[in-house]
From TrEMBL:
Signal listed as a keyword: no
Main location group: cytoplasm
Provenance organism: Halomonas salifodinae
Family (UniProt): Belongs to the class-III pyridoxal-phosphate-dependent aminotransferase family. HemL subfamily.
Molecular function terms from GO: glutamate-1-semialdehyde 2,1-aminomutase activity
Pathways per UniProt: Porphyrin-containing compound metabolism; protoporphyrin-IX biosynthesis; 5-aminolevulinate from L-glutamyl-tRNA(Glu): step 2/2
Record's catalysed reaction(s): (S)-4-amino-5-oxopentanoate = 5-aminolevulinate
EC number: 5.4.3.8
Keywords (A to Z) from UniProt: Cytoplasm, Isomerase, Porphyrin biosynthesis, Pyridoxal phosphate
SUPFAM superfamilies named among the record's database cross-references: PLP-dependent transferases (SSF53383)
Modified residues (N6-(pyridoxal phosphate)lysine): 265
InterPro entries in the record: 4pyrrol_synth_GluAld_NH2Trfase, Aminotrans_3, Aminotrans_3_PPA_site, PyrdxlP-dep_Trfase, PyrdxlP-dep_Trfase_major, PyrdxlP-dep_Trfase_small
Cofactor: pyridoxal 5'-phosphate
Protein name: Glutamate-1-semialdehyde 2,1-aminomutase
Length: 428
């Protein structure tokens, strides 16, 4: 038995499923999760000292690689001043100024402790601002685990939402309308019927929780127009895409201005941080300025602000995102070539520093139905073979991959060599 397997057994004694977030459990992969001891740059090192080239990056934040000396240095510098005061601190203003400078659609911003808090608060705000209850989301988009957002599609575009999890009251879920991602016609039809009741649309502008699905041309533009027409709030969930798809996130990349933006991951430099912000007029509804209540004991933690500011400062360097996208391009085109040579049906999709690998004969994947129609068994074999080769991919066919600036040309070449052997195993 490996040390990781032993640790997993021990973890299962007192932690549900042995993990503090479900995807870490490697469920359905027929092997225990790898327990990581430390990480440096592009590499994870497990408890037995085995090294992995990492394309998960703590699910997004580690865009300059693990244990970035500047991020760690900033945290160390703050540490001796104390962890948390429950008072305003100047470093929170530095963070707010930085976010508003990088994302011009954000005029006021509130820091929170996770992406879930950011999206949960943003929809409360959209509801409070408009005085309407219904929210539109898209099938396969993940916005964290708050009740209103943990809802999947019913059958047909306009059916009321059904909870994705026991414990989400049906009476709340019915205010969440789930439509097919990338389907503007469905959005138009829904608003034609219910527009005056819809507080807002929340969307992952590049979906990263059903693999990687960029928007079809016109989709985000269409959402903007529909929201304008009906006085609904357009919320971009940029928890994953923010500072990754481009410095200014997907909104900069695709040139669409949302009313509210949710941030997480990179904004905290690897610490538990989220943020939501946007138009002044809407954000002024938040307490203590307005009546929509939102709060947090540890929100704006100085230590977390220090980590986030250090990381945002690095990703602002000119050329950072072009170089990141180039690495993604090299990896993805290399994977496609090698798969083709091995006779494996595989495509990749990318947006800036994120990418997805789909085992499918389709030429593109634009929504949840297409994503779930891909060959899950092929993914499992590929994932396992890559892990044995020392390459750590997301342990699910429905997660995007993340590149960092610490990945060298040699790391990418080693990944492609490993993939060649994995494809050979798969082709057997
Ligand atoms: N929104 C998106 C797009 C995400 O990818 C995630 C998490 O992966 C969340 C929200 C929730 O963030 P958190 O896990 O920090 O609560």
């Amino acid at each position: 038995m490996t040390t990781s397997a032993q640790l997993f057994e021990q973890a299962c004694r007192h932690i549900p499923g042995g993990v503090n977030s479900p995807v870490r459990a490697f469920k359905g992969l027929e092997r225990p999760p790898v327990f990581i001891e430390r990480a440096q740059g592009a590499y994870l090192f497990d408890v037995e000292g085995q090294r992995y080239i990492d394309y998960v990056g703590s699910w997004g934040p580690m865009i300059t690689g693990h244990a970035d000396p500047e991020v760690l240095g900033a945290v160390r510098e703050r540490l001796d001043l104390g962890l948390s005061f429950g008072t305003p601190t100047a470093i929170e203003t530095t963070m707010a100024d930085l976010i508003c400078e990088i994302l011009p659609s954000i005029e006021l911003v509130r820091m929170v402790n996770s992406g879930t808090e950011a999206t949960m608060s943003a929809i409360r705000l959209a509801r409070g601002y408009t005085g309407r209850d219904k929210i539109v989301k898209f099938e396969g988009d993940y916005h964290g685990h708050s009740d209103s957002l943990l809802v999947k599609a019913g059958s047909g575009a306009l059916t009321h939402g059904e909870p994705s999890s026991p414990g989400v009251p049906a009476s709340l879920a019915e205010h969440t309308i789930t439509l097919p991602h990338n389907d503007l016609d469905a959005v138009e039809r829904c608003f034609a019927e219910l527009g005056e009741q819809i507080a807002g649309i929340i969307v992952e502008p590049v979906a990263g929780n059903m693999n990687c699905i960029p928007p079809l041309p016109g989709f985000l533009e269409g959402l903007r127009k529909v929201c304008d027409r009906h006085g609904s709030v357009l919320i971009f969930d940029e928890v994953m895409t923010g500072f990754r798809v481009a410095l200014g996130g997907a909104q900069a990349h695709y040139g669409i201005t949302p009313d509210l933006t949710c941030l997480g991951k990179i904004v905290g430099g690897g610490m538990p941080v989220g943020a939501f912000g946007g138009k002044r007029e809407i954000m002024e509804q938040i307490s203590p300025l307005g009546p929509v209540y939102q709060a947090g004991t540890l929100s704006g933690s100085p230590l977390a602000m220090a980590a986030g500011i250090a990381l945002l400062t690095k990703v602002r360097e000119p050329g950072f995102h072009d170089a990141l996208a180039q690495r993604v391009e090299t990896l993805c085109s290399g994977l496609e070539e090698r798969a083709k040579a091995a006779g494996i049906e595989l495509i990749t999709q990318r947006a800036g520093g994120m990418f997805g690998v789909f085992f499918t004969g389709q030429s593109r994947v634009d929504n949840f139905a297409q994503a779930t129609a891909c060959d899950a068994a092929a993914f499992r074999t590929f994932f396992s073979a890559m892990l044995d080769e020392g390459v750590y991919l997301a342990p699910s066919a429905y997660e995007a991959g993340f590149m960092s600036s610490a990945h060298t040309a040699e790391d990418i070449q080693a990944t492609l060599d490993a993939a060649e052997r994995a494809f050979a195993r798969l082709a057997q």
